[in-house]
Amino acid sequence: MPEIDIAATDGSGSFGAYVALPKQTPAGAVVMIQEIFGVNATMRQLSDWVAEMGFIAVSPDLFWRQEKGVQLDPDAGQAQWDKAFALMNGMDQGKAVEDLQATIAHARKMQGANGKVATMGFCLGGRLAYMAAARTDADANISYYGVGIEGLLGEAGAIKAPLILHIAEKDKFVPPEAQAKILEGLKGHKQVSAYVYPGVDHAFARMGGHAWDARAATIANGRSAELLARVLG
């Protein structure tokens, strides 16, 4: 699959993105937002899956301001996790959202695109998908087990497009009190749908991962696919 370069809007350079293309175009596009492990094999597989659903998938390298081309393996030992957390802690998330907006703008005009763009993020990307819902012009946003969203509820009023939150009940990074704050803070928001998946842990939708749960992932992915089909065409 092709890799593309996207210019940063602040003039500081350009960043790479993995692209997976559907069999038929024109098609809507989905900006796939990485976990803390970079645009690794998992993100590429997820992008390929979105392309198989009939959408253009674009997964930008959001660690590029620190190190380009990061691809870490969460199952390959503590050193990979240590590097992942260091990169996450070193990320300027405001700049990451600017890079997402640049990716969204690029995806709208790609060859074969129909102009509609959604975001879909996992873990760190789930948090950034919420931020994208509040700060970008994406047509829809999907957050899988986003971390720290309870601290971003003040931005909920800026969310104007559909947003799905997939929350893992046993998520060690999003404890029960954080989940309660999120659900209460977004209750009644016409654009937000929040779903809690009982008995599953963080990363339950990472196929082949230690927390993979086929039933919860299938239900969550079905909800995601329905929203993408409705909004992107």
From TrEMBL:
Molecular function terms in GO for this entry? hydrolase activity
Has the keyword Hydrolase been applied to this entry? yes
Keyword hit for rRNA-binding: no
Q: Give the Enzyme Commission number.
A: 3.1.-.-
Q: Which residues form the Dienelactone hydrolase domain?
A: 15-231
InterPro entries annotated for this entry?
AB_hydrolase_fold (IPR029058), Dienelactn_hydro (IPR002925), Dienelactone_hydrolase-like (IPR051049)
Q: Name one Pfam family in it.
A: DLH
Q: Looking at its record, which EC class is this enzyme?
A: hydrolase
The UniProt keyword set, sorted, is: Hydrolase
Q: What is this protein called?
A: Dienelactone hydrolase family protein
Q: Which organism is it from?
A: Paracraurococcus lichenis
Q: Which classification does the entry list for the species? A: Bacteria, Pseudomonadati, Pseudomonadota, Alphaproteobacteria, Acetobacterales
